[in-house]
Design brief:
Elements lengths: L3 H8 L3 H15 L8 E2 L26 E7 L3 H12 L5 E4 L8 H4 L11 H4 L17 H14 L12 E7 L4 E6 L4 E9 L9 E2 L10 E4 L5 H4 L14 E5 L3 H13 L2 E6 L5 E2 L8 H6 L4 H13 L12 H12 L10 H26 L3 H6 L12 E2 L3 H4 L5 E5 L7 E2 L3 E4 L2 E4 L2 E4 L9 H5 L3 E2 L6 H4 L18 E3 L11 H21 L5 E3 L1 H14 L4 H6 L15 H4 L6 H14 L5 E3 L1
Parallel strand pairs: 2-3, 2-6, 4-18, 6-19, 8-17, 9-10, 9-17, 10-13, 11-12
Antiparallel strand pairs: 1-7, 4-5, 5-6, 14-15, 15-16, 20-21
């Protein structure tokens, strides 16, 4: 038997020491309030969700018309649903969007440096349909927003769209077999079908730091970037920050992208950190025009499938994307023969995966040490947790930013900022006077679906969706729930989860369009899941769950594990445990079988 010392020498690190370090770092961040530590953006804080990209004072007459389908949300989920429904022959599709245009997350996220962190050839939907190839491997937000608008134009989704409009409620009318949708514009629209494509990242959250209302300086959330204050634009050049002392709270995916621009613009930048992100190589580059010209029909779906297979733990003969997301599979390949995996027990596979994970994170930590001159700062920027405890980040400018003389990492050793004062922030017992505080604190993820949506649904017999799902989500394939006829949901819950979420949304949109098309062809008015089919799927989700409670509990707190308090409903509310490849085959097989199994038409 190989000794622990020999294993450590062979690997270049000691697995037992790393496990102990990971536990210690996790314990620093554990806190009793979990998700309750965040301040809801309502009341005195509602201005943090105001739209800075539209002219104030917009108004219109209330609508009381009828369309075929109302889709809530104008991001990729809503655009894909609208596109696939249009392809299926649905004529009047209305997208309701609280922003001033299509784009969803990419409408709101216009902070400097904003870009996709999944390869754009995989991430941007409907590229072939629009005969479009992004201009960079990881394209920036302005091009993504322009692509969103192009989808809206291509599929005529602007014709019936309602922007700057928020849904406040939906109610099923059993007599007329229609949904009534109420909005903040006084609308009382009706539709045969409704589809919720609200998206997982749509409701900004603020840290519940004491004294937040006392601070006299300027504040804003990164999803509502204030260029009137900072100057510049999405490309940077934040000239308005000259002479300013700026603080940014949060070191997740958003901060990783905007900190380099803040570092260049502000006289002094203070980055307040609870937990460091893993920051891997980005190596962005322009699209090779010869490669783009050589692409054959079906190229994007093939590339999407290849990426999804690899990042889901499957194996492919070739890695088409070949980036940091797929590297852990290449790490695993260096440690175990793929073809021999079948001879290993689940425990042995888990052990190999953990070692590959350690190996990858050692690379990430070495990068911080190599890129940051100050040894203490470099040490504070090293992440000590499993790679997928938090969303991995990819950036080549973030770490070197801490070499600039005016940039200060305020590592709070897992505690976070203690409080606001009138002049700034207190952290580690020290007050930092600041002209501006920027919240890079992300979006609500672990809260109830209806809270994130901002409205509830009333289905048959007066039942609300919030009440029905109080003890756990119940659906068929994640897209329909009994008691709520003609209602569809785009989400990760009880569905296929992928790193590139638009891929999953596209598969769901195609599935929804198929069902609606079949209902039309049968001359039915209503389609609804049976309670039996719903319960069978819930049990399948629970049985197939790969949400390891031990893995989640061992992770440093974050939105992946409900801030260190894994939700007891996580197993039922999670995604399909066998992975997205198998999930997409399940719903494709269901369509090919052709009987609409588990659905009632009337």
């Amino acid at each position: 038997m190989t000794s622990p010392q020999a294993i450590a020498e062979q690997l270049g690190f000691d697995p037992d020491s790393l496990r102990a370090k990971y536990r210690a770092e996790r314990d620093k961040r554990l806190r009793a309030d979990g998700n309750e530590q965040y301040q809801e953006v309502t009341g005195d804080f509602s201005h943090y969700v105001d739209d800075p990209y539209v002219e104030p004072g917009y108004s219109r007459a209330p609508l009381a018309d009828e369309v075929d389908c109302i889709v809530v949300g104008g991001g990729f989920g809503g655009l894909l649903t609208g596109a696939r429904l249009t392809e299926a022959g649905v004529k009047r599709v209305r997208i309701i969007e609280k922003g001033g245009d299509f784009g969803g997350t990419w409408y709101w996220n216009r902070y400097p440096g904003a870009a996709c962190d999944v390869e754009s050839y995989v991430y941007l939907p409907l590229c072939e349909e629009l005969n479009f190839v992004p201009k960079e491997k990881y394209t920036h937000a302005p091009e993504i927003l322009a692509h969103s608008r192009a989808i809206g134009e291509k599929f005529n989704l602007y014709e019936h769209a309602c922007f700057q409009t928020e849904v406040e409620g939906m109610e099923w009318d059993e007599d007329n077999k229609l949904w009534t949708v109420y909005t903040n514009r006084g609308d009382k629209m009706r539709a045969q079908y409704v589809c919720m494509a609200n998206g997982p990242l749509n409701r900004p959250k603020l840290p519940g730091i004491p004294g937040i209302s006392e601070y006299q300086g300027h504040t804003f959330h990164t999803s509502r970037w204030d260029y009137g204050y900072t100057g510049g634009g999405p490309e940077g050049n934040l000239s308005g920050l000259r002479g300013k002392r700026v603080g940014i709270i949060g070191t997740g995916a958003t901060a990783i992208q905007c900190v380099p621009h803040l570092a260049q613009g502000a006289d002094e930048l203070f980055v307040f950190q609870r937990t460091p992100s893993s920051v891997d190589v980005r190596a962005n580059r322009p699209t090779d025009p010869e490669w783009a010209a050589s692409l054959k029909p079906g190229w994007q779906q093939a590339r999407m499938d290849n990426f999804m297979t690899l990042v889901s733990g499957g194996f492919a003969d070739e890695d088409l994307v070949n980036d940091g997301w797929t590297e852990i599979i290449r790490n695993l390949g260096s440690m175990v023969n793929f073809k021999g995996m079948g001879r290993l027990s689940p425990a042995e596979i888990a052990e190999k995966m953990e070692l590959a994970d350690f190996q990858k994170m050692e690379q990430i930590r070495a990068r911080a040490e190599a890129d940051v001159a100050d040894k203490d700062t470099a040490e504070s920027l090293k992440p000590y947790y499993r790679q997928f405890c938090k969303r991995p980040c990819f950036n080549d400018e973030y770490l070197p930013s801490f070499n600039l003389p005016g940039v200060h990492l305020i590592d709070t050793d897992g505690v976070g900022v203690e409080r606001f004062t009138q002049a700034g922030l207190v952290a580690n017992g020290q007050e930092f006077e600041l002209d501006c505080v920027i919240f890079a604190t992300g979006f609500e993820v672990g809260t109830d679906y209806t809270r994130r949506s901002g409205y509830d649904l009333i289905g048959r017999n007066g039942q609300s969706l919030k009440d029905k799902w109080a003890d756990g989500i119940a659906t068929l394939h994640g897209m329909q729930t009994s008691g709520f006829p003609n209602c569809f949901i785009i989400s990760q819950a009880q569905s296929g989860f992928t790193v590139s979420f638009p891929h999953a949304m596209n598969e769901q949109a195609k599935h929804i369009a198929y069902i609606i098309q079949q209902v039309a062809q049968s001359n039915a008015k209503v389609v609804e899941v049976t309670e039996e089919a719903e319960q069978e799927w819930v049990q399948e989700i629970i049985k197939m769950s790969r949400l390891s409670e031990s893995f989640q509990a061992e992770c440093t707190p974050g939105y992946y594990n409900n801030e260190g308090k894994p939700n007891p409903k996580s197993v039922q509310n999670g995604s399909y445990g066998a992975g997205p490849v198998k999930f997409f085959k399940v719903i494709e097989g269901w369509r090919e079988e052709g009987t609409l199994a588990g659905l009632e038409l009337r």
